Amino acid sequence: MGLDYSYQALPDPCGPLARAIREPVFGGAFSAVSGRLEADEWLAWGGVWAECAQAWRELCVKHPGLEQRRFSLDRRWDKLHYLVSEARRHGRFDADDWGTHAILGAGLLADHLTGGQGVHLRYSPPDVVQGIAEHLCPMTEEELRRAWDPPRMQECAVYKFRVDNAGEEEWGRVAEAFRGLQAFYRQAASLREGVLVKCD
Predict the structure, then answer these.
(1) What global pTM score does this model have?
(2) Burial class (CB in 10 A: 0-12, 13-18, 19+), 57
(3) Which Pfam families does the record cross-reference, listed alphabetically (predicted)?
(4) Can you give the pLDDT at residue 143?
(5) CATH code for the domain defined by 5-14+67-199
């Protein structure tokens, strides 16, 4: 088991999200279905699960390509957090900075909205997504590489990080994840979408 972070772009306003915040039962289904927009099997479950899946389906019809506008950092999320947030490099995990917002999301939604391991879903509205894109997109891999400090990262308890597994191969995977994150936020910002952040 481990903590994996994923990101789903959402239109603003987003009816299913607003309902999930208002209604805990629907919110429970939303928490499970979100980020799995193509999962038609939820329809077969009936009840609130089918309602939620149908709401997602309608959202995708109204916003073509929405199901592709998602991204996952898997277990590299805290490595990227350390690299893009100076606050994280100084030991502040949940700081109010663009790098932290990019990785963890800007704010909590509701106490009843959690991912599979009990971590609260978070959301960045379009104006914050725009700011994240403006922060992330100009950053270069050379800048990240200067922040890549394996002994210090281990000292800062970066999630699933070990100095003895921090060679060029792992750096390459982290750099690739960074490029993907940049592209994701660039697209979401261009469409004036918000971003739902989920940890499973």
Answers:
(1) 0.94
(2) middle
(3) DUF1877
(4) 95
(5) 3.40.1760.10
pLDDT value of position 193: 98
CA 109 – CA 185 distance, rounded (Å): 20
Nearest-angstrom CA–CA distance, 144 and 151: 15
When pLDDT is cut at 50, 70 and 90, the band that residue 6 belongs to is: very high
Q: Which amino acid is at 98?
A: W
CA–CA–CA angle 177, 122, 53 (5° rounding): 90
First to last CA, the chain: 9
Which single residue is written with the structure tokens 């990227």? Answer: 80
Q: Which helix (H) or strand (E) is 6 found in, with range?
A: strand 5-10
SS3 state of residue 92: coil
Among 62, 175, 194, 178, CA closest to 122: 194
CA gap 138, 144 in Å, rounded: 11
Is residue 33 packed enough to be buried (19+ CB in 10 Å), middle (13-18) or exposed (0-12)?
Answer: buried
In 10 A of CB 105, how many CB atoms?
24
Torsion of CA 97, 104, 148, 165, to 10 degrees: 170
> In angstroms, what CA-CA distances link 140 with 3, 176, 178, 179, 193?
26, 12, 10, 9, 24
